[in-house]
Design brief:
With about 60 residues, the chain is mainly alpha-helical. It has helices at about 5-10, 15-25, 30-35, 40-64.
């Protein structure tokens, strides 16, 4: 898979999903990410899971 395909897949996601995916690269914990955005840590974890699933689905479609 080429980097361009991954970037296109990420760009096709809603902003909140991109933000959740980028939070993984942040040196702070997911709980700190949630606090900074004034959300429950479970909500942050759920959003990250949903974003990962959405990205995986888009990448799977593009591989065919």
């Amino acid at each position: 898979m080429e980097a361009r395909e991954v970037l296109d897949a990420v760009a096709s996601l809603p902003d909140w999903q991109v933000d959740a995916l980028l939070s993984v690269d942040d040196p702070e914990s997911l709980a700190a990410y949630a606090r900074r955005r004034r959300m429950n840590p479970h909500t942050a974890a759920s959003r990250l899971r949903i974003a990962r699933e959405a990205l995986a689905l888009r990448l799977k479609r593009w591989r065919r």
